[in-house]
Amino acid sequence: MISIIVAIAKNWVIGINNTIPWNIPQDRLWFKKHTLHKTIIMGRNTYESIGYALPYRHSIVLTNTMKNIYSNRLSIVNTVQEVLSLLNNDYEYLVIGGAQIYKLFFKYTNRLYITYIDLLVYGNIFFPIFNLKNWDPIYTKYKCCNKVNLCFKILEKK
Ligand SMILES: NC(=O)c1ccc[n+]([C@@H]2O[C@H](COP(=O)([O-])OP(=O)(O)OC[C@H]3O[C@@H](n4cnc5c(N)ncnc54)[C@H](OP(=O)(O)O)[C@@H]3O)[C@@H](O)[C@H]2O)c1
Is 61 near ligand 1, meaning CB less than 6 Å away? Predict the structure, then answer.
C-alpha cells in the first residue's frame, strides 16, 4: 500500500527554497513514528534537502540526474514504474515528498498522513489540491507546539 505523509500550511505551502518553512518538533516526531522501519519514497530535491538517507528506513529516490544505486539503505531510480516494481503489496510505503513526487504518486495512494499547520506561510512549493470528499478521516488529533496549532489527520481513500 502507498501512503503519503506531508505537513501543509493553511495556504497549502509545503516548502520554500528546498527547505521546510517551519520548525515543529511534534511534527518531526509524527513523521518519525510513521516512517521508521518502512520504505520512504522521495524526489531528488527532498533527498538533497535532507542530505542523507534517513536511518532505520529504506529510501527510494526518484531522479533523472543521479546515478542508479541499489542498496539496503538507498535505491536511486529513474521512473515511477521502477519505483512501483520495487514495492510489495504486503507493506506500507510512505511517499514523503516533495510536490513533484506527491503529484506523481497521488493516484496510487490509499492513505494520507497530513499535519495541518495553522499558519499562513510564505513559500514556493505547494501540496497539490485534492478533493477531501474522496477521503474518510480515520484519525484526528489536535496539538499545540511552539504556539502553533497543529492537526494530525489520517485519511483513507473511499
Ligand atoms: N512539508 C512537507 O511535508 C514536505 C515534505 C517533503 C518536501 N518538502 C519540501 O518540498 C520541496 C521539494 O519539492 P519539489 O517539488 O521541489 O521536489 P521533489 O519532488 O522533492 O523532487 C523533484 C525531483 O524529482 C525528480 N523527478 C520528478 N519527477 C520525476 C520523474 N517522473 N522521473 C524521474 N525523476 C523525477 C527530479 O529530479 P532530477 O532533477 O534529479 O531529475 C526532480 O527535480 C522542498 O522545499 C522540501 O523542503 C516539504
Answer: no
